[in-house]
Design goal:
Distance between the termini: 31 Å
Strand order of the largest sheet: 1-2
Number of helices: 8
Shape: globular
Helix content: 55-70%
Strand content: under 5%
Largest sheet: 2 strands, antiparallel
Number of strands: 2
């Protein structure tokens, strides 16, 4: 998720709701818009200084599936549907990052950064199963 896109959509949403503090409803909206995990968005909001450490911990401890249901969002993004016994699909995040890398839109270091931020560090560092 490009930083500029996050900033744009977050500012637009907060302005529309006439507020300046990010809450769980904003997180759910952005997670579903960008198709990224709650953990990835929460970390990105903290790293980009949209939320402080206290808010980060508060959002981290939320039962995201319960909140998604409460706000009327599908829980599909927050569950791991089994396609087959070897593949678990979490979101399109890693695929979009791969496409951006292959199209020379982002560098390999930026690609790795996005994967780590998105919770796909095992793709960067390996999971140790191939050794």
């Amino acid at each position: 998720m490009p930083r500029e896109a996050l900033n744009f959509h977050l500012k637009k949403r907060l302005t529309k709701k006439n507020k300046n503090i990010v809450d769980i409803s904003d997180c759910l909206y952005l997670e579903n818009y960008f198709k990224i995990s709650h953990q990835a968005l929460n970390l990105r909001l903290k790293l980009d200084n949209h939320i402080n450490n206290k808010k980060y911990k508060e959002l981290k401890d939320i039962n995201i599936i319960k909140e998604a249901r409460r706000y009327g969002y599908s829980i599909e993004l927050y569950t791991k549907p089994k396609i087959n016994k070897d593949i678990v699909v979490e979101s399109e995040y890693a695929e979009l990052a791969e496409e951006a890398l292959e199209s020379d839109i982002i560098s390999e270091s930026r690609y790795n950064e996005y994967l780590i931020e998105g919770g796909y560090g095992d793709l960067v560092f390996g999971d140790g199963e191939d050794e």
